[in-house]
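Z., the sequence and structure:
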Amino acid sequence: MKKGYYFYSTSDEAFYGVEKKIHDQIKALSAFFDVTKIPIKKEKSNIVKSIFWRVPLGSWGRDYKSAIRIVEIDSGQRGDCFFYIRHQAVDLRYVCFIRKLRSNYRDADIVLEIPTYPYDKELLKNTTMWPWFFKDKFYSRFLKKYVDRIVTYSSDEDIFNIPTIKIINGIDTDRIAPISTDTSDGKVIKIIAVAQFQPSHGYERFINGLKNYYNDGGVREIELHMVGEGSEKAFYEKLVVESNLENRVFFYGIITGDKLDEVYEDKDIGLAGMGLYKRGITKSSALKVREYLAKGLPVVTGVPNDAFSNGGDEFCMEYPNEPGDIDINCMIQWYDALIEEYSDKSQLVRKIRDFAIDAVDIRSTMRPVVSYLENNI
């Protein structure tokens, strides 16, 4: 079995979603290869180091030597291996790290995953990261000497003059249990939104749409269940009160595990981001949409999502990616048509769950990477 090493920054572990994604990717690769997970630890910082890291020849404080040492102890000088590296902003030490891997393991495959591309805006939105914007622009041109492929979620054929492997975000569907009971009588449509509420979620569009629906004489019972915290939660709570929707929109705060599963159980629709136009995003790879699908829920979204790139359109109600209140009547008609098409909710849940396993399970979405690595043994 081919040996592989998965490098990631320990900074990624601070974000639960990223940590979960790393775990899922390693699990998917481990089904085909012998994979060792190697953290690239952040060095302790102080004011002097922080300033030095930002000067032109300075580099981010990461312990690349220890990461390489783990490989040397584990593999010796074996060449029949691969290195999968979660990309960081490029600086001198980063390039030297990859050059060292290539020098020591000339026949190995070196693959970089770039989670977001282009990422210039991410570096420029915080002034403390501006030095890395210029370092990245300068040093990224050297990567083509050492890197074989770049894994991207974009449509780019090459990045930094390196051929790409195009994939979409995936999840471990084994970890997510589908809703198992049908407690809905069809009279009430219950929507769930699970998020760390930020402006780009744009849920004011749904809340305002719900207000308009009832002001215009709507009679169908619609409930919105909002799970999570975040900077926009107070804004949403205030909007709900001002709209007299306290008996239709419910806030839970952060819940996880079995308690979250319980909240999911009687829901009918998953609500994805409705405000990504605020960030200039025209297509989403949101993991939350995959999780809704794995639960067996159809999805309402305000932007195209690549989970539906190869089918499953009927399970997604897409509103325009622009400001404006949504038309609740359109959602009701779409959902009722789905239930009618699949006879009942339990049949619909099974169909959506099967679609999720085929389309967005991590073992399916990582298949292009696996195929490349298998064919380069």
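The first helix runs from residue 16 to 30. The first strand starts at residue 3 and ends at 9.

Let me know what you think.
H.
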